[in-house]
Amino acid sequence: MTAMSSRTNRAVWADARFLIGLALVVASIAGVWWVVAAARTTTPVAVADTTLLPGTPIDESDVRWVEVALGEAEGSYLTALPKDSTITRPLAAGELIPAGAVIETARSTVTTVVITSTVDVASTVTVGSSVEVWMSPVKDRGYDDAQVLIETATVAAIRESTGLASGGTVTLELIVDRNQVAALLDAQASKAALWVVPLGGVR
């Protein structure tokens, strides 16, 4: 009787281990299937069709849509284009548009200001470049020490004057926050020397 009971217990335990092992195999297969399925799941994401600058109103003509497997980045990129929206930072052509780079146009705080550079502009400065604006205040018959006036601005346009009267000066249209406009206008009114220093390309 004892031997029969022992064999029965071993059989039950063997069956239990078999069922547990089978459950683990099924769970493993299901997990692999879920990972593969998730990797194959794509979402339409907006891509900048051209270089987009801060303060630029954006609509369907400015973007194209590509299928992207976002995975854990779901929600980080623009999957629908809001009405009356504006870009908040420079975006290069072909760049996926982050959800945080678009706001309602009414909330935009940037504007454009034109300055004339006192010195040559670096060849790396192009439309869309992020730059610092430096200034040297007028002092006696020269200029005082240079200082940073605007830490970050975006170049919207570059115009080079070639006439004799212009002396080959370079004029830049800069995108800045509205609260920086007064400082730029004051610097220009005081005849301070102004120039830009590149922080990099489109970022």
TrEMBL record:
Superkingdom field: Bacteria
Domain SAF: 43-103
The protein's name: SAF domain-containing protein
Organism: Microbacterium mitrae
